[in-house]
Amino acid sequence: MNAEIISVGTEIVLGQIVNTNAPLLARQLATLGIAADCQLAIPDRHDLMVDAIRAAWRRSSLVFVCGGLGPTADDVTLAAVAEAVGTGLTVDQQHWQWIQETFAERHQAMMPENIQQAKYLTGGSPLKNAVGLALGSWYERDGHRLVVLPGPPREFKPMVVQEVMPRLTKVVRQHVQITSRTLNFFSRPESQLMNEIAAVTADLTGVTITSYVQPDAIQVRLTVRDQLQDVASKLLDAAQDAIVKKEEPFFFGVGDDCRLANVVVDLLRKRNLRVTAAESLTGGMFQSTICSVPGASNVFDGGFVTYAAAAKEQLLGIDPQLIEKHGVVSAETAAQMAEKSRGKLGVDVGLGFTGVAGPDSLEGQPAGTVWIGLAIAGRPTQTRLCRFGAYRGRQAIRQRSVQTGLQMLYRALIK
Amino acid sequence: MNAEIISVGTEIVLGQIVNTNAPLLARQLATLGIAADCQLAIPDRHDLMVDAIRAAWRRSSLVFVCGGLGPTADDVTLAAVAEAVGTGLTVDQQHWQWIQETFAERHQAMMPENIQQAKYLTGGSPLKNAVGLALGSWYERDGHRLVVLPGPPREFKPMVVQEVMPRLTKVVRQHVQITSRTLNFFSRPESQLMNEIAAVTADLTGVTITSYVQPDAIQVRLTVRDQLQDVASKLLDAAQDAIVKKEEPFFFGVGDDCRLANVVVDLLRKRNLRVTAAESLTGGMFQSTICSVPGASNVFDGGFVTYAAAAKEQLLGIDPQLIEKHGVVSAETAAQMAEKSRGKLGVDVGLGFTGVAGPDSLEGQPAGTVWIGLAIAGRPTQTRLCRFGAYRGRQAIRQRSVQTGLQMLYRALIK
């Protein structure tokens, strides 16, 4: 099956934003063996859109039109799609009711234009938006399918994953049986991981292996086509075994939605342990990541942000002479932050994060130099030196630090 | 002048890499008033490429073909372009000599295929590659221009800036250009903001106004085309004045990169104030956001994550009876968290965040119920009740809380 992706938006064609929706969708389609061989970006101009959509609808069996579903005057996608495929627009009354209630709940004034966001292509069906107001559309005629999706990535991604992929999988499975499994690995060079995986799976035929770099992990997807379910499962098991045997130090779980923070919170809960932290360069990001997991209260009471040296002394009681002697960016300070935070809260596990987020250097250490301490009751305190200078930018260095802290904790918990 | 950009590469259409070349080129073209109204990505398949390039060459006066200039078998761009426009390929002997010398210097084995990288379109002229081996091509005929550029961004960008833009600038009339300015507003319904803006700018002709919803702001872009710089500036000033006059309570700054956290940190620094926080549902996200700003150490020493009620008592010294009486999700608790954190750190400003991130309710309050406290030395403590239940998901509720805290602080600081 050939697909085309049409991305709509003046901000895209002017280069003001980078189009990440089309590659995300293309990767999803690839898992079903669908190639999106033609990907177009055009401004939100009615005439251009109608021409482009009409041409795509004529020549391809699957067309995606992405963006321009907002309530403002430059959101003209639905009208253009309807004209191009020769249908109208229908208001989803239930959704329109929900939009009105949502505005009322937020105590915000609603505009008449908001009704746009409750419309879908007549003769098709609406697609739910998990995080935003605008519906998507799924439309089929004469063996051709057209899908309308919202532009903001935070709305786009869940609609693709939750609404579009299950429908497409049904369509594709009438012809091809596809079984897949996702393995999750700590962040590291993708090329290295994939080369190693290629080497250990060289003699496994029938399993396609693709990788997808997330900000906090590398997801490796194993896909088997055209096999009965139990044959496919055995092939996937064999591939997983070979890969995990080789990559065990980096592997942390199976599943598309498997996140390291969730795995760590789950392990802490199972082992009946509580965690805290004292954070300098990460400034609360580690604790916030723990709190992003539903049920975090089972394993986390609170902790410290100790950005300045004075706060490390005042809130944690770290000896000023220790900091004086070793510097704030040191194994000793990271260890003390971990141990003192643990002690102050009276919990089982403490982490300390101290380092140079940049852009300036600190104590003669370049941006990216980070020490992480991990103190667990009844075990010797660990420290780790990280050099994240090659990850450009303050945010990348801080995120990388949080991920490394989670990795250290994960590896300690599975021992 | 209308341009089209054709990006070639299987890794692009499979979504394995995000296409940053096209937006970079589009931004450069926009400065010359050239709109790249059609941007296509296709795999490196000869037939698809010839069709796409031929169609673009017929309908547009300026066509860019990017990627596929390497020495390997799947680098078929030059041959496809030559066929599509009906010309041949010429070897730049001087460049070919240089490639051979370069390989010798690197003690690397050269492949016969490397001669591909010394070729350009016959009848056109080669474009220098500042960092890589492959030449680009500039080709003109019958008032149409076609430019071939390499795919790797580190080669692409210098060739666009150093080779293409000077040539294009000569072609394009000097005075035609696009001037734009971005205004930033607190998150709120986009439709409402844009309707209000439309009303106050109705009599301003020549300014195009578009909006783009960011996770933490609404960016409104004002664009003027085809005007001399000083005329454009006056038009933008007039539009900005009218909009900010109406939207002053929501406006927080000018510029593509203007973020509320940066504005707040800058205001604190100018007023010589230091900030802290005690965070429950946000779990450190407010402090982490402050620390995301370079130079945060000028205004922030540290603070508290007090997720459990016990931590609020232990770390901040909040009276258990106060929590008992009013609940953790209450104005009183939020105010105490703000005041006590400020007092403990001995700084000027404290914020308290307490509420229900969900998915479960707490103390009979539904997910999304949030109280934020703001304590500033010498002023009465403020509290604000937010009902974010309509923002779906734990992360959205927490992010919204952080943004609202920043807004409260911003408004207090500009008073």
From TrEMBL, chains A, B:
Organism superkingdom: Bacteria
Domain MoaB/Mog: 4-170
SUPFAM superfamilies in the record: CinA-like, Molybdenum cofactor biosynthesis proteins
InterPro entries: CinA, CinA-like_C, CinA_C, CinA_KH, Competence-induced_CinA, MoaB/Mog-like_dom_sf, MoaB/Mog_dom
SMART domains listed in its UniProt record: MoCF_biosynth
Family (UniProt): Belongs to the CinA family.
Record-given protein name: Putative competence-damage inducible protein
Gene giving rise to this polypeptide: cinA
